[in-house]
Amino acid sequence: MWINDTTLASWVSRVKRAGGDGTLSVPEREELARLRQENTLPRDHRHAETAADRTYNAVGGVTRRLPGYEP
C-alpha cells in the first residue's frame, strides 16, 4: 500500500501532539485481538457453508441435516 508522504507526516504529527509514542495500550491491543478473532469467524463460516453446499450438490441434493447445522 502506498501512502502519500504528506499524509504520513500528518499522522505522525497528530500522534506526537497527542503525546503518544505510536504503541498500542493494553486495552487497544486486547480490542485489536478481539476484532481480529471476530474477523476470522465469518470466513470460517462461509467456508463451512461452501463445503456443505458441495456435498449437498454431489449427492443430487438429497441429504440429511446434521444436528446443529444452521444455514
Summarize the structure.
This protein has helices spanning 5-17, 26-58.
Detailed description of the structure:
The protein is mostly helical and about 70 residues long. Helices cover about 65% and strands about 0% of the residues. The protein has two helices and no strands. The model has no long low-confidence stretch (mean pLDDT about 75).
Helix content: 55-70%
Radius of gyration: 23 Å
**Which runs of at least 5 residues are low in confidence (pLDDT < 50)?**
none
**Order of SSEs:** HH
Query: How would you characterize the largest beta sheet?
Result: none
Structural class: mainly alpha
Q: What characteristics describe this protein?
A:
single chain; 71 residues; 0% strand; mainly alpha
List the helices and strands and how they pair.
Blueprint: H1 5-17, H2 26-58
